[in-house]
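User: Can you help me understand a structure? I only have the sequence.
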Amino acid sequence: DSCVTATTSGFIDVVSKCILAKIKNNKKSAHIFVEVEPKYNEDILGMMFGIDKFGIKLLFYFAGMALMSFGVVVSVISDLGVTPISSIPYTITVVSGMDFGVATMIFSVLMVLLQILILRKNYKIVNLLQLPIGLVFGAFLTFCGLITAGIPTPDSFVLKIFLILLSTVFVAVGVFLYVSPGFVPLPPEGF
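Assistant: Let's start by predicting it. Here is the structure, written out as tokens:
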């Protein structure tokens, strides 16, 4: 048995070489295990839009953040709760009347300050990039709140359940896209 690691572009070539090797060795059974490295269509998107791999990762990162923001706002509209990471900013919003995005920005700054206080000398300067990322996420929340401002909280429990499930899908897809590039996490996640 042989195990070969290959990129998707070299997949056919690797499989054909493995089969030929098995035939040459006169083995009656040809069990071939091929492990393909995961890629999320960077090459295809790059060819279609002329964007390099870093640009595509950046696009996924911010698209994921936008989808997460939309999902969080939809969960607020459902009136069945919010994501755990947004619970403190949402509580600040409910108590003070402050914009949800602004409350998230303030919370993000507090999380970075707490990281610095706790880690002290072990705090890495690169983690300060969490500040602008937290501000961008707060801005996305404000924007999503503005575009959904006309949607009333539903009275029907079935509709509320539908909205919370829709919210879960948006947050899940957003997290997948946002985490995949491996860039700086949001401040509460970095905490």
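Now, to help you interpret it: The first strand starts at residue 2 and ends at 6. The first helix runs from residue 11 to 24. Let me know which part you'd like to focus on.
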